[in-house]
Amino acid sequence: MASLLSFLIFASLSLAHAKSNSTLTPINRDLYHSSADLLEEIKALVHRHPDKLTVETIKTGNKGYKAEITVVTYCRSRKETDDRSKFRILLSFGQHGRELITTELAFRILSILSEEQFLPDVDAASLNNTLDKLVIKVVPMENVNGRKLVEGGDLCERRNGRGVDLNRNWSVDWGKKEKDYDPYEENPGTGPFSEPETQIMRKLALTFDPHIWVNVHSGMEALFMPYDHRNTTPDGAPSEQMRSLLSKLNNVHFHKHCIIGSGGGSVGFVSLQTKNLCSFNISYFPFFLERQPLF
Ligand SMILES: [Zn+2]
């Protein structure tokens, strides 16, 4: 599994390098697709590779508010997509509208998985041997409505199309106000899972039942693991394995720049409000489904 995550890191680093001249305003269209163009390009990519990729659009809504999320499924042999013996990975991007770089990373990863793009210095046979064992579901843009607000000029909008932070709308510690709570930025909604986008993600996670879920954000250099809602990590061997893996990735690919540990324990280390959240920095957030991600 380390090789797969290494592959993700390679993809992100090479993309980050290409985007290093990005600025906050205006959105540089030489660097960032519009949401419509990006999703259209991803669907076209899927249609060029029906042997490996499938795409579905999940829609729901309530109280006059509608949301839809595109989900791409990758399996090197499409007929084995439902093979439950394979290792299942869920990768989600664009939960916060302003974090444009993350959705570009999703496109880059799908381009590599489809073998339209390649990573330098990666042994293809070894990578394919790993990919043979996997089913990967990619949510390239979780918060399409929020992203459209950003594209309409609200450049630092992180919430969904009706002002709810999708990263505060899960059920663990819902509505809990931390010391630095910002009622505007962190509006948790009217209740847990009140938002269509969160409902879709929850259902996707429950049905796909991933072994690993990586929730990709931008804004700080961090590799977070559970818990996000408290200042500790779980006990036991799986937790140690996760920490070991993240540490290895940090050492090998991030020059030890990343914070590693519980999201909840690390939040005081860097004030997100003082960081350029639209920058290219990639944060990885592996977390358990029942845990509420923090950022
Ligand atoms: Zn975020």
Can you give a write-up of this model?
The chain has one domain: Zn peptidases (Aminopeptidase). It has 8 helices and 8 strands, in the order ααβββααβααββαβαβ. The protein has helices at residues 2-18, 35-48, 100-113, 124-131, 144-151, 196-208, 237-253, 263-266, and strands spanning 53-62, 65-74, 87-93, 134-139, 212-218, 222-225, 259-262, 282-286. An 8-stranded mixed sheet has the order 1-2-4-3-5-8-6-7, sandwiched between helices. Strand 1 (53-62) and strand 2 (65-74) form a beta hairpin. Helix 2 (35-48) runs parallel beside helix 3 (100-113). It is globular. The protein starts with a helix and ends in a 9-residue tail after the last strand. Residues 1-7, 9-22 and 267-295 have low confidence and may be disordered. Bound molecules: zinc ion. Zinc ion (ZN) binds at residues 95-96, 99, 217, 295. It holds the Pfam family Peptidase_M14.
